[in-house]
Amino acid sequence: MEASEGQVLLINKPLRWTSFDVVNKLRFKLKIKKIGHAGTLDPLATGLLIICTGKMTKHIDKFQAREKEYTGKFVLGQTTPSLDLETEVSDAQDISFIPDESVYAETKKFIGSIRQVPPIHSAIRINGKRSYTLARLGQDPALKAREVFIHEFEITSLDRPVVGFRVVCSKGTYIRSLARDFGQALGTVAYLSVLCRTRIGEFKLEDALSLEQVPD
Fold first, then answer.
1. What is the pLDDT of residues 42-61, one digit of tens each?
2. Model pTM greater than 0.85?
3. Is it true that the peptide bond before 161 is cis, omega within 30 degrees of 0?
4. Phi and psi for 201 in degrees, rounded to 5?
5. Distance between CA atoms of 138 and 125, rounded to whole angstroms?
6. Alpha carbon distance 61, 185 (integer Å)
7. Rounded CA separation 58/61 (Å)
8. I want to staple 47 with a disulfide (CB 3.0 to 4.6 A). Which of 77, 115, 174, 197 is the partner?
9. Around 116, how many Cα atoms within 13 Å sit in the side-chain half-sphere?
10. Alpha helices in the chain (DSSP H)
11. What tens digit of pLDDT does each residue of 80-131 get?
């Protein structure tokens, strides 16, 4: 099917590209005006990005609503204003008091419906301005907690201070906020150092194309 008629493209978003960068690249490559993505990935995240073209852009909201799966790494005992590597990392705290078994056990407290405050370095609008714009100006925007749902949360590796994880969650979940809250639950701080989206609903990263693999 021609892109102008409507396609769903599964793209493996490169590191440091914005989701909008990917859309712009494909708009130029496919020579199409009607194109969008179904769910933003931060520039420092990689993984599955659903791109819709033509008539399939009508289904973007439906794709966005599906559950997501992520893998990545948290760093315990340090944090950053953005809760990822976009901003400067703080000095390390002592985390020797945290038993390994607690790192694994604390995940259970996050399973199910939880309330989560988004990162101040996020695209949420406050009085017409993006929260990250206010944060970069040195302000501390007050963001309201939102209800999200964590279906699965498991620790896949532990090499202190780095914790590998896998999360299956609802639309609207901020993994950076999960890093912060998980650190707090362990009596310390934490930030997100690596993030990859591996699934959106039935769509899987293993079926995605690189930008170079997308045919003209």
1. 999 999 999 999 999 999 99
2. yes
3. yes
4. 60, -125
5. 16
6. 33
7. 8
8. 197
9. 26
10. 19-30, 60-64, 100-105, 131-136, 175-185
11. 999 999 999 999 999 999 999 999 999 999 999 999 988 766 566 666 666 5
Q: With 0-12 CB in 10 A as exposed, 13-18 as middle and 19+ as buried, what is 19? A: buried
Q: What are phi and psi of 19, to 5 degrees?
A: -60, -35
Check: CB of residue 113 under 8 Å from CB of residue 165.
Answer: no
Q: Buried b / exposed e across 157-195, counting CB within 10 Å, b at 16+?
A: eeeebebebebbbeeebbbbbbbbbbbebbebbbbbbbb
Q: Name the catalytic one among 21, 42, 84, 207.
A: 42
Residue 102's φ and ψ, nearest 5 degrees, are -70, -35
42 catalytic, yes or no?
yes
Q: Between vectors from CA 194 to CA 188 and to CA 199, what angle results, nearest 5°? A: 115
Q: Look at residue 143 and tell me whether its pLDDT is greater than 70.
A: no
CA 205: distance to chain centroid? 14
Q: What is the pLDDT of residue 1?
A: 44
What pLDDT score does 141 carry? 65
Tokens 């901020």 sit on residue: 174
- Cα separation, 108 vs 142, whole angstroms: 28
Pairwise CA distance, residues 106 & 155, whole Å? 10
DSSP 101: H
Phi and psi, residue 174, nearest 5°: -100, 115
